[in-house]
């Protein structure tokens, strides 16, 4: 059930026989697209035009005059969808204008884009693609056909001005299964073979693992290669990353980083035995809709049929389930990619989750909702002497309401830890805790309201979560 074309493969990033990509060879595409957008802005009945009515009239006028600077709109993105629409359109128009101006200067045969000696250097085009990625990452590229248009602009710029030189894939050998810490927890039950869809709603009341569930996904082998991941986005792409240990710490921050640089910084595809851990500069791509940005990667996974069931009707899960995500699909697919030791602290989510390990290994710790009194969550009345600090940033506190202040992996170790400083954890959480080491192709079903923490073991890790 994955979207995208099976023919859009690594060794042929652009299928030049695909009619859907004919626009890439059309040197007039930027001009005709811009003209179409200008006509759209003049039609007050167009939904995309109606979206902008609530924005500042002067800024909308600047947009229609093709003079709106996206940076002027960026501080207003949190004010509502209409501002995210305005920001997206300002970026698209800016990039189309750059393409048109360059086209007017360009000489030679337009049918040979990859040999084009453009007067605009690669920095100009990388900055344009960065802007287009910001329309997706920061604003969500809302509006009818806007995401498709943003992605088309990226592909057009890459095709004409930033062609990707594909080299040998160098798929990494599958690492040996690492040995994680021994935890004083129960194992997560495994169901093999995978159960029928009709049985899922009842089973999903509690966590269970599906060994090898996604073993046939192309992602399982292809994503081990740094070169494959780089080519899937093409040149100039950026992604949102987290810096620091995890989002509970004061040194944690978020940033936008070039995709190539991110893969380099986590030493993706390198042998775990020769890789040096860089705790000081740890980065993590967490909970990001990467597949919206990179449709080619979306074609490497499959949406499990289970997400189209209604497990929220189960008695156990219903009290912790607020309903499916509010988007049209009622499904959120996120990517999680990091180097050695990538960590997500114990937290809860309001959705059902099918968490698939694509590359590497991840140790997962779980506990049911009744363990909450022992989790020492931020903004909670958990008992005990070691409560979280109260002098933290209020905005951060709001983000941490569903997060534990504890290192559950350390406190759950079978030897050498008596949990004396956190007696409530020992009383309320540890007796109910479960753990599992996920390997490539394994899928873990996590009900809403269950505490769960993840830690990469033995090297780089790439996971996909399906919230529904």
TrEMBL record:
Keywords: Methyltransferase, Transferase
PROSITE patterns with a match to the protein in the record: JMJC
The keyword NADP belongs to this UniProt entry's keyword annotation: no
Domain called JmjC: residue spans: 283-468
Keyword Methyltransferase included in the entry's annotation: yes
SMART domains membership: JmjC
Entry's Gene Ontology BP terms: methylation
Top-level taxon of origin: Eukaryota
Signal peptide: none
GO molecular-function term, one example from the UniProt record: methyltransferase activity
Region called Disordered, residue ranges: 376-402
Pfam families: Cupin_8 (PF13621)
Biased composition (Basic and acidic residues): 386-398
Protein name, as recorded: Lysine-specific demethylase 8
Organismal lineage: Eukaryota, Fungi, Dikarya, Basidiomycota, Agaricomycotina
């Amino acid at each position: 059930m994955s979207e995208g074309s099976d023919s859009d493969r690594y060794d042929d990033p652009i299928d030049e026989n695909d009619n859907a990509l004919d626009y890439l060879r059309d040197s007039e595409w930027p001009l005709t697209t811009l003209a179409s957008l200008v006509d759209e802005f003049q039609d007050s009945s167009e939904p995309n035009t109606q979206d902008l009515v609530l924005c500042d009239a002067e800024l909308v006028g600047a947009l229609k005059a093709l003079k709106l600077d996206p940076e002027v709109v960026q501080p207003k993105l949190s004010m509502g969808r209409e501002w995210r629409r305005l920001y997206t359109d300002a970026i698209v128009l800016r990039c189309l204008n750059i393409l048109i101006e360059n086209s007017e200067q360009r000489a030679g045969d337009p049918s040979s884009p990859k040999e084009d000696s453009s007067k605009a250097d690669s920095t100009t085009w990388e900055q344009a693609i960065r802007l287009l990625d910001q329309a997706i990452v920061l604003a969500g590229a809302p509006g009818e056909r806007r995401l498709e248009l943003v992605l088309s602009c990226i592909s057009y710029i890459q095709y004409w001005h930033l062609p990707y030189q594909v080299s040998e894939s160098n798929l990494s050998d599958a690492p040996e299964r690492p040995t994680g810490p021994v935890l004083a927890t129960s194992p997560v039950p495994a169901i093999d073979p995978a159960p029928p869809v009709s049985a899922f709603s009842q089973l999903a009341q509690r966590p269970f693992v599906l060994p090898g569930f996604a073993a046939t996904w192309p992602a399982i082998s292809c994503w081990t290669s740094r070169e494959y991941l780089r080519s899937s986005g093409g040149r100039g792409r950026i992604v949102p990353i987290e810096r620091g240990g995890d989002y509970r710490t004061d040194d944690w921050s978020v940033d936008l980083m070039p995709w190539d640089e991110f893969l380099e910084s986590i030493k993706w595809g390198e042998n775990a035995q020769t890789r040096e851990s860089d705790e000081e500069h740890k980065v993590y791509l967490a909970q990001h809709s990467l597949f919206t940005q990179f449709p080619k990667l979306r074609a490497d996974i499959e949406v499990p049929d289970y997400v189209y069931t209604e497990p929220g009707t189960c008695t156990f899960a219903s009290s912790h389930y607020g309903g499916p995500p509010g988007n049209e699909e009622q499904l959120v697919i996120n990517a999680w990619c990091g180097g050695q030791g990538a960590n997500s602290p114990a937290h809860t989510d309001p959705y059902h989750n099918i968490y698939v390990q694509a590359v590497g290994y991840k140790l997962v710790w779980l506990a049911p909702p009744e363990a909450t009194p022992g989790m020492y969550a931020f903004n909670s009345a958990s008992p005990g002497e070691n409560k979280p600090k109260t002098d933290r940033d209020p905005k951060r506190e709001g983000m941490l309401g569903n997060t534990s202040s504890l290192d559950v992996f350390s406190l759950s170790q079978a030897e050498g830890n008596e949990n004396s400083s956190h007696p409530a954890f020992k009383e309320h959480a540890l007796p109910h805790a479960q753990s599992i080491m996920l390997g490539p192709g394994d899928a873990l079903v996590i009900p809403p309201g269950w505490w769960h923490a993840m830690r990469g073991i033995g090297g780089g890790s790439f996971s996909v979560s399906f919230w529904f």
